Amino acid sequence: MWASTHNDTLRAKMSSVVDVLYDCQKKMGTGYLSAFPSEFFDRAEALTTVWAPYYTIHKIMQGLLDQYTVAGNSKALEMVVEMANYFSDRVKNVIQKYSIERHWASLNEETGGMNDVLYQLYTITDDLKHLTLAHLFDKPCFLGLLAVQADSISGFHSNTHIPVVVGAQMRYEVTGDVIYKVSRNLFRWTKEIAYADYYERALINGVLSIQRGTDPGVMIYMLPQAPGRSKAVSYHGWGTKYDSFWCCYGTGIESFSKLGDSIYFEEKGETPALSIIQYIPSTFNWKTAGVTVTQELEPLSSLDMNLQVSLSFSGKNGQSATLNVRIPTWTSASGAKATLNGKDLGSVTPGSLLSVTKQWNSNDHLSLQFPIALRTEAIKDDRPEYASLLAILFGPFVLAGLSSGDWDAKTGSAVSDWITAVPSSHNSQLMTFTQESSGKTFVLSSSNSSLTMQERPAVDGTDTAVHATFRVHPQDAARLHGTHGAALEDTSVQIEPFDMPGTVITNDLTLSAQKSAGSFFNIVPGLDGKPNSVSLELGTKPGCFLVSGADYSAGTKIQVSCKSSVQSIGGILEQAASFAQAAPLRQYHPISFVAKGVKRNFLLEPLYSLRDEFYTVYFNLAA
C-alpha cells in the first residue's frame, strides 16, 4: 500500500512495526521470530497435530523482505536473513535425524509460499544456503505431477498448493529451471490474453467479493457458492476489523493492497512498450515514453452493454513507443471499436493485444468500446449429478441470483429469451413501508411467502433490507414516475417483492405471478391522518386494509382487517393500518438482470456487490 501511495503515516507505522519485531527477535537470540513458540515446529516435524506454522512464517518473512526491497529498510533484511538461517538449520536437522522423506511429509500442511520468499531472498544474498532451502520447500510430489501435465491433482488443497506453484514461478525466474511455467507472471512471460482475462475475473469476483462492501478490514474466510448461501453465515462468517487473524485475513489485506499492480506492464528497450491489460480508472507515469497515461471508464450498466474506456496522454516531447491494449475474450468483434484521435483503427480481435506505435503527446486520445454480452458457463465438474448446473456471467462479472435456496432456472434457445435487464426507471418505484412502535422502527417484510413486520436493520446490505424493499408500480402507466411513491396516493398499484421480480402480493396475502384483479391495492391516505402516511386497501375489498397490530414484536404477521367488521378502540386499527412511505432500504445495482425460473424469477446482481444477502451462484437446468 505504501508503494502505491507513499503515504508518510503508513511509512511511519510500518517502520515502527519492524523496530518492535527487531527487538523481539534479538531478545529471543536464535533468529526465530513468531508470536507462537518454536515448539509448534517440533510438532510439525514429528508429524503430530499442529496448526500450519510455516504459513505464518512465510507471511512474516515476505513482509520483512518487502520492507527491504520496496521501502529500503535494511534492518528488515537483516531480520529475514536471520529467520532463513534459523529454518535452514531446522530443516537440515530433520533430514539428518530422520530422512528427506520426513521433511517432505511435514509439508503436507499449509506452508504458504516459503519457496517463493526464499528464492526472492537468494536473489539478494546470493547465499546458496537460501537457494537450497527454497528447493526443499518446492514439494516435488506435487510439482512433478504438474511438470508432466498429469491430471492427478484432484483433492489437493488449493490454498496449500497454489503458493507452491507461485514459488515455482519464482524458481524459474531466478534459476531458469523450468519445473513448471505456471495469472500475473504467465502473462508477463507469454502475453497470452487468457491469463489477463483470468486475472480480471479473479480480481472482480474473487478479491472484491471477500470484503463486506466498503467496510475496511471486514472479510470472509471462504466465498460460498452453493444455493441459498450468504457470506455472513459462511464458514467463520464476516471477520472483524481488529480481532480476526485467520490466514485469509493476511491474504485478503495483501490482495487489496495490490489492486493496481497488474494494470500496466512496461517493457524497456529501444522502442519502449506499455501493455494495459486491466481496465481500472488510474494514472500511469510512463517515464520511458515521456508521457503520463490517464485511464477513465464510463459507468457500466446492464442497459448500456458496452465497456467504454478512455486513454488520454499528457506530456511534451514524448518519444516513439508502443502501446498495447488488451481486447478481452468476452467481447464481440462485431461491436468492438478502437479510435485514436477520432480515427478508427480498424477491426479488433477479441483475445488479442491491439498495438499502436507512435510518438505520444498531449493531443492524443485513445477510445475503446467493448460490447459486453450475457453468457452461461457450465460448472467445472464433470460428475453426472452436476451436469445441469451453470453460472451466468455479464462479461467478466459473475451474476448471483437472490435466493434462499431455489436455483431452478427456465432457459430459452437464446440467453435473451430468459434473462432481461432491469430498467433504470424501476429504482424510482422502490419503497419501504415503516411503522413506529415502542420507540422502534419496524418495516413491512416479505419472506418465505409471508408478510411480517421486522425491525429495521441497523446496517446496510442485509437480507432484511432486501425483504423490506418493494417495487410499487401503478396500474396507470402514466403515473410510473413517482419519487419513492410520493405521487402514488389514491392510486391502484401492484406490490412486487424486491427479490421476486414478476411476482406480486395478492389480496389474500399470497404471492402470485398472475396479474389478476386480486393483485391490486389502493394506496390511500393513512387512516391515522398523519402526513406521509398511507394505508394499503385491498383492490377487491374496499374498506379492508393490511394491518400489523399495535405494540407488536418482530415477526408479527400482517393480516387483513375491515372497517365494517372491526371496531377501532383508541385508534388502534387506524394505527395498525397506517404505514410511513420511506426511501427503499435497497436499490437495484446498475448491473441488474431478471432471470426466468421454474417457480419464480431471480434478481441477478454481481457477486462482488453482495454483502449479507442470501444468493445462488449456480442455476439448475434439470428441473
UniProtKB/TrEMBL annotation:
Domain Non-reducing end beta-L-arabinofuranosidase-like GH127 catalytic: 1-178, 181-261
InterPro entries named in the record: Beta-AFase-like_GH127_cat (IPR012878), Beta-AFase-like_GH127_middle (IPR049046)
Pfam families: Beta-AFase-like_GH127_cat, Glyco_hydro127M
Domain Non-reducing end beta-L-arabinofuranosidase-like GH127 middle: 275-372
Superkingdom as given in the UniProt entry: Eukaryota
PANTHER family xrefs: OS02G0195500 PROTEIN (PTHR31151:SF3), PROLINE-TRNA LIGASE (DUF1680) (PTHR31151)
UniProt name for this protein: Alpha-L-arabinofuranosidase B arabinose-binding domain-containing protein
Gene source species: Triticum turgidum subsp. durum (Durum wheat)
